[in-house]
Amino acid sequence: MSDDKENLNVLKDKAATFYSFSKGTSTQSYPTSMMGSVALLRQTFLDAEWYAKNKPAKEGINKSLEAWNNNNALPQIFEAGDKWGI
Asked: What is the CA 69 to chain-centroid distance, rounded?
C-alpha cells in the first residue's frame, strides 16, 4: 500500500515463516495424524539446531537444514483453523 507505481513497489522477500497442519495437495501419507505432524516439526527444529552447532564436512551439507536455519530468525506464524490447531 503505497502511492508509488506498481513496478516500483517491492515486497519484502523474507517477512515471516508460515506453517500449517493442513497437508494441502501433498500425496505423501506421512504423517497421518496431528500428533505425528507436531513430532515431525519438533524433530526438524531439533535437527536444524544440531546442524547449526555442528559444522558438517563438505559431504555432509544439508541444503534443507541450511535454508531452515536461514529463516529461523523470522517471525514464525502457525495457521490455526480449529481448536486442535491452536
From this structure: 9
Does a structural domain hold residue 23?
no
User: Residue 39 falls within a domain, yes or no?
Assistant: yes
Model pLDDT for residues 38-67, shown as the tens digit of each residue: 899 999 999 999 999 987 776 788 999 999
Phi first, then psi, for residue 53 (nearest 5°) are -85, -25
Please check whether residue 17 is in contact with residue 77, taking contact to mean a CB–CB distance below 8 angstroms: yes
The cell 506421512 sits on which residue? Answer: 30
Q: Does residue 81 sit within a domain?
A: yes
| Sign of the C-alpha dihedral computed for residues 56, 62, 63 and 65 taken in this order | negative
Per the structure, the complete domain to which residue 67 belongs is given by 30-86
